[in-house]
Design goal:
Blueprint (H helix, E strand, L loop, with lengths): L3 E6 L5 H10 L12 E3 L5 E6 L4 H6 L5 E5 H7 L4 E5 L5 E8 L14 E4 L2 H10 L5 E4 L15 E6 L3 H5 L2 E10 L1 E5 L5 H22 E9 L3 H7 L7 E4 L5 E9 L3 H11 L2 E7 L6
Parallel strand pairs: 1-3, 1-4, 7-8, 7-9
Antiparallel strand pairs: 2-3, 4-11, 5-11, 6-9, 6-10, 12-14, 12-15, 13-14
The structure holds 1-O-pyrophosphono-5-O-phosphono-alpha-D-ribofuranose and zinc ion.
């Protein structure tokens, strides 16, 4: 039986979280000595550790069947692959940054300047769209030092925490695009590989849903149940368990992580007490 070949970043911002995601899906990898390839012990997949910049091409050529990488690289490389799923981690943006002592009054700043970047295609179309004529200096790494060593006037690079810009005396002035980790896939996966991919996606979605939701338990007087159910739509319908104290129940449901604080305030106002919020490990809808 053939295995699904998954390309992930060898070293960098995405590597740890990519491995972690697969582990959270219950996939166990033998710690072989080879640093380029490893096979799972309990699921038909093989991991290939590659430079993220090469992943789109390898997926297009089916050296790998799918790949986990940043949307930034997917857009830049513009290969013939399918974006299968957004993963919600490795959020960052591609931005223009200039020396911090320079005043910035708009895109006109870049007119006839030299911009260092590893994203020449994205930058070129951004400049074109905004009718800015500037020179693009393509470099493959350590872009942030370019202004400091006199190679360029500005940079166009990935910003995540912003600390790289800060330590290099640069400040961010324009965001060109926002990015997160995604799964891309070859367009011609055979039925067998597609089947493995579907099983993997089922698990990935369960892990993602679990992270986006919390399990919530609270005590409420029976008279407030309807009101509280309206605040907490839950998965289907909340569970109600009677308390020893007459007229009171314990209500269990699920709440979205990003709506969490807002809901808590509403719940308290509706009469809920003893609210517990618990992380969910896996969530299958
Ligand atoms: C980007 C960028 C910076 C760093 C910014 O590299 O080139 O080095 O991340 O992060 P910070 O704002 O948190 O300091 P990336 O992870 O895309 O790696 P790569 O270009 O080497 O593939
Ligand atoms: Zn890279």
């Amino acid at each position: 039986m053939s295995e699904l070949k998954i390309a992930i970043q060898k070293n960098g911002r995405l590597s740890e979280n990519s491995k972690k995601l697969l582990e959270e899906c219950g996939i166990k990898f033998s710690n072989g000595i080879s640093v380029l390839k490893t096979t799972a012990r309990n699921f038909p997949v093989e991991l290939l550790f590659l430079r993220d910049d090469d992943i789109p091409q390898y997926v297009e050529q089916q050296v790998a069947d799918i790949g986990i990488l940043g949307e930034n690289v997917v857009f830049e490389k513009n290969k013939d692959v399918t974006v299968i799923e957004q993963l919600g981690f490795a959020q960052c943006r591609l931005s223009l940054a200039i020396p911090k002592e320079d005043k910035y009054e708009g895109l006109g700043y870049f007119m006839n300047k030299k911009i260092a970047t590893s994203y020449p295609h994205i930058l070129n179309s951004f400049l074109k769209k905004n009718k800015i004529i500037a020179e693009i200096e393509e470099i493959s790494g350590s872009v942030e030092i370019a202004p400091g060593i006199g190679l360029a006037n500005a940079v166009c690079d990935i910003v995540s925490s912003g600390s790289t810009l800060l330590t290099n005396g640069l400040h961010e002035v324009e965001t060109i695009l926002k990015s997160q980790a995604v799964i891309i896939g070859n367009k011609n996966l055979g039925p067998e590989k597609q089947e493995i991919l579907n099983r993997l996606l089922f698990r990935i979605r369960a892990v993602k849903n679990a992270k986006e939701n919390k399990y919530i338990l609270l005590n409420t007087p029976e008279s407030a149940i309807t009101k509280i159910c309206n605040i907490l739509p839950g998965m289907k319908s909340p569970t109600i368990v009677p308390l020893v104290e007459k007229g009171w129940v314990s209500l269990h449901s699920v709440v979205k992580e990003d709506e969490f604080w807002e809901r808590i305030d509403q719940l308290k106002a509706a009469g809920a007490e003893g609210i517990l919020v618990i992380p969910i490990e896996k969530m299958i809808l």
